[in-house]
Amino acid sequence: MATDANTTGNLPLATSQRSSRCAPHRAHTRRQAGSDAGTTGQTDGYPHLRQAVADLPDAPGVYLFHGQPGDLPLYIGKSIHLRSRVLAHLRAPDEARMLQQTRRIEHIRTAGELGALLLESALIKQQQPLYNRKLRRNRQLCAWQVVPGSPLRLQLAAAQTVNFATTPQLYGLFASRHAATEALQALADRHGLCLSVLGLEKGVPGKACFRHMVKRCAGACCGQTSRAAHDARTLAALTDMQLVCWPFAGAVALLEVCPLDPQFVQYHVVRNWCYLGSAPNLAQARQLDAVAAGFDADGYKIVCKPILHQQTPIIEL
Fold it and tell me: Is 271 in contact with 250 (CB distance < 8 Å)?
């Protein structure tokens, strides 16, 4: 089943049948003429999926493995070459159980890789497929926050209580408090920071901590390094982890043009690093603008670099 992702606000998606819009005519003809035989060979272990694979285009998009009718998808993935990627699943022995359960493969076309990444992430959070793990919504998301004042103090901030898109001096995106603490401990090891000064261990004022005795702490705990110098080193160590505040007043649309068909364009709407949907023109894109339900770490990771490095045209809505 083919779906066009040209309008994807308020998922589930609005659909239209344009399954081969972005695929060159000669590639489509070649597949019809000769490559179906190759598909047959590669689907011998899963004959019930043969036609579904043959119908997949070699173009960007998202694919969904469905089990029994009415059930949620088993797996959702993305690729810039849909057909090749699904065939790779069929050759993976460790995915045999999922493929035996699959009864239908649906695909949704996107203009390019950016749209596929955004749509895959949104659909996984919405539909919670059985075999997807990494992109599910994380309700324990947290970051280290620098508390204003001197001496420097760090505290954990939760995404449920702090707006990660607009709050300055947030560092790192962590799936849990444990992961955040481990990351800060690793940072301390690399930069000679004191865990007791950072608040991760209890210490006796003026007395060297154990890590200083084994030369893993520069001595802020016992006066060998000043607190000001330790604070400056901490901020410098945290720099590469700093979250970027949303740089626009409101929502923006990221324009993506299909490399195989310049007439297939999508405007991906983002506000506060959260993906709100895609549309085929600016008028429909403006209708997708809304207040995001919460900070989306995956959306941040997907669009931060394209926006900051201006890798795609950006239109403020």
Answer: yes
Question: Residue 28 is encoded by which pair of tokens?
Answer: 């489509």
Give alpha helix (H) positions in the chain. 25-30, 36-42, 50-54, 82-90, 96-101, 113-127, 177-191, 195-198, 210-213, 227-238, 282-287, 297-308
Are 49 and 73 in contact by the 8 Å Cβ rule? The answer is no
Separation between Cα atoms, residue 45 and residue 57, nearest integer Å: 21
Question: Rounded to two decimals, what is the model's pTM?
Answer: 0.82
Are 289 and 269 in contact by the 8 Å Cβ rule? The answer is yes
- Spatial strand order of the sheet with 104-109 comes to 2-4, 104-109, 61-66, 75-79
Q: Name the CATH code of domain 2-127 (choices 3.30.450.40, 3.20.20.70, 3.40.1440.10, 3.30.230.10).
A: 3.40.1440.10
DSSP string, 39-54: HHHHTTT-GGGHHHHH
CB atoms within 10 A of CB 307: 19
**pLDDT at position 138, please?**
65
Least Cα distance to 31 among 1, 59, 7 occurs for 59
What pLDDT does 29 receive? 27
For residue 93, give both structure tokens.
């022995």
Q: Which two tokens stand for residue 233?
A: 């080193």
Q: Which residue has the tokens 């919670």?
A: 128
Asked whether 42 and 85 are in contact (CB, 8 A), the reply is no
Task: Quote the mean pLDDT of the chain.
Answer: 85
DSSP, collapsed to helix, strand or coil, labels residue 63 as strand
Q: What residue ranges do the domains of the chain occupy? A: 2-127, 142-241, 252-316
Over 90: is that where the pLDDT of 279 sits?
Answer: yes
Orientation of helix 297-308 relative to helix 113-127, angle to 10° = 170
Range with the largest mean pLDDT of 12-16, 51-55, 139-143, 165-169: 165-169
